[in-house]
Amino acid sequence: MHTLAAQISEKDRFPYRDRFYPFIAATIYRIHCGFLRTTIHICKEAPMKTIRNIFCLFIFMALLLTAGTTARAADTYAVDPVHTFIVFKIRHLDIGYVLGMFVDFSGTIVADKENPEKSSVEMVVTAKSVDTNVKKRDDHLRSDSFLDAVKFPEIRFKSTKVKKIDETTLEVTGNMTLHGISREITVPVEFLGEGKDPWGGYRMAFSTDFDILRSDYGMDKELPGVGDKVHISLVTESIKK
After folding, report:
1. pLDDT of residue 3
2. What is the pLDDT of residues 26-80, one digit of tens each?
3. What is the pLDDT of residue 27?
4. pLDDT score at 169
5. Which of 37, 72, 107 is the last residue of a domain?
6. Whether residues 66 and 97 fall in one domain
7. Which residues contact 150 (CB under 8 A, 6 or more apart)?
8. Residue 37's pLDDT is what?
């Protein structure tokens, strides 16, 4: 096969090359000359109009590039449950404290660095995942005396407003739904850092500390033995989607 192929001349393999290539070259030449004549004619007849058109074209392209940058400024992050902690603290007998945490949750953060006020956050916590390291106490907290986790299985927070305070601090306002009752709260949020992780992802971290009154959410049983004010701390790492 190789010997036979070698015997076939390049002209035999491309029999129309000698006629086809000159045709293409001539066509390209005619198009090129026509374009040059048109361009020269436009420049002679209306040089200022041509300059204005070129200037407008550059402005239009710059606006497109700016719009593309703005659109990419907002990134969506998924809360990493392995590196996120939701911890609460409540007074016991007005003497000491009981600490606990929620271990099952999910969340989404939309972070807009150029326009922080366009950022948002939403968290969903499974009420029955409460854990104080004592099963009997956890069951009591899940009962209708407190969380009533069967009737109200989720605790939710959804932001409605984000305000930038300084380079590392935000003020986030949103609706917190707990025990079937929704109330607007405003919490301070600290930006902790961001960067690439060893697994090819990109992470961002925040923290917040705030207080709520459990009686505001219809949980007023066993007062004052179990305190009314609940201090909540949240530290989260989120992974860019």
Report:
1. 42
2. 544 454 445 445 444 544 545 555 555 555 555 555 555 554 444 556 899 999 9
3. 47
4. 97
5. 72
6. no
7. 128, 142
8. 52
Mean pLDDT, rounded, for 129-153:
98
Task: Note whether 235 and 81 are within 8 A (CB).
Answer: no
Q: Which residue, 55, 72, 89, sits at the end of a domain?
A: 72
Which CATH number does the domain housing residue 143 bear?
2.40.128.110
Q: How many CB atoms lie within 10 A of CB 157?
A: 20
Quote the CA–CA distance of 158 and 67 in Å, as a whole number: 28
Average of per-residue pLDDT across 80-95: 98
The pLDDT of 166-182, averaged and rounded, is 97
The token duo for 33 is 């000359």
Q: What is the DSSP string of the chain?
A: -HHHHHHS-HHHHSTTHHHHHHHHHHHHHHHHHHHHHHHHHHHHH-HHHHHHHHHHHHHHHHHHHHHHHHHHHEEEEEE-GGG-EEEEEEEETTTEEEEEEE--EEEEEEEESS-GGG-EEEEEEEGGGEE-S-HHHHHHHHSTTTT-TTTS-EEEEEEEEEEEEETTEEEEEEEEEETTEEEEEEEEEEEEEEEE-TTS-EEEEEEEEEEEEGGGGT--TTTTTEEEEEEEEEEEEEEE-
Is 148 in the same domain as 93? yes
Amino acid 66: pLDDT: 52
Q: Which residue has the tokens 């239009």?
A: 60
CA distance 54 to 58: 6
CA 37 to chain centre: 52
User: Quick one: tokens of 32?
Assistant: 């090129």
